[in-house]
Amino acid sequence: MEKRNVSIQLLRVSACFLVFFVHFGQRVGLSGILKTFTDFGAFGVQLFLLISGFLAGKTFLENPDINILTYYKKRVIAILPLYYLVILYYFITENILNHYFSVIPSDELGFGWFRYIFLLNGFLNSDTYFWSNLGITWTIPIFMFFYLIAPWILRKVKTIFSCVMIWAIVFVVTQVLERFYSCVIFTQLHIMFLGVIVYACVKKGRNLPAIGAFLVAAICAMILGNTTYVYVLIFSSILIAMASYNSISLPNWLSKIIDVLDKYSYTLYLMHGVVFCSVLDRLNALGVSKIIIAAIAIIGTFVATVIVGKFIEKPIQKFLKKRFLNS
Length: 327
Prior knowledge:
mainly alpha; 13 helices; 74% helix
């Protein structure tokens, strides 16, 4: 089994909690400095995208002859079982259990639940939250689209320059397409290819020049007023710095905690969306105390993560791996 990079684990766990914090602040109604702190968590998504691009770069730059079908199977098994469980949960609750409490808005394009079944909400815009980001699932189409095209683009990449050129092409093409048709995949896809550049810099030992270049680019983005890309570029520098060193010495108990948190980071990411959107939003509408909502947000998310992750998601993944990867 490949040795895990503790630095990447820490960053991935951090990204997960950043996303948790921004939604926590929204539901609990924080204000002032606390609200400013939790709002910063919105950039945790971009950190997730960077790390995913980084790991994809690691896969293909180290193993250019990797079997693409096997790669697809691994990505599907890692991501889609829990995603479809979440969508199934919402299909049942919104169509049956919540039928008496709320009305499902009509999908202006007529796709309905097929948006989520076929991951179309990444391409198809909607004026309603229900048909664009149900259960905080808007990032899943981005990940899956990247994993779909990455093998064909990255398997021939060998140099930092070629990685930069690929990112530049993706960036320009998506920005042009955004002018004619805006969707989240066009908005975020190039960040994952930026993660590939980060890995190429680490692999080639160009850490300090790359960190300097990313920080200068971040200053330029700040001047241009692109706040998101300021943080994306700063995250890129941090990712390079941390990924360059895997000799972090941690107490055994802390290493185990980080392993568990990293193992269930994706589970927590989706399950906090279920708890927040399906439970907390309704409690807020009923005027329930913010203290109670905060307690349910924390306890409910971690209980749901453990139960669903350990007893449903991981067993399903184990079965699928045995069935489709070990055959």
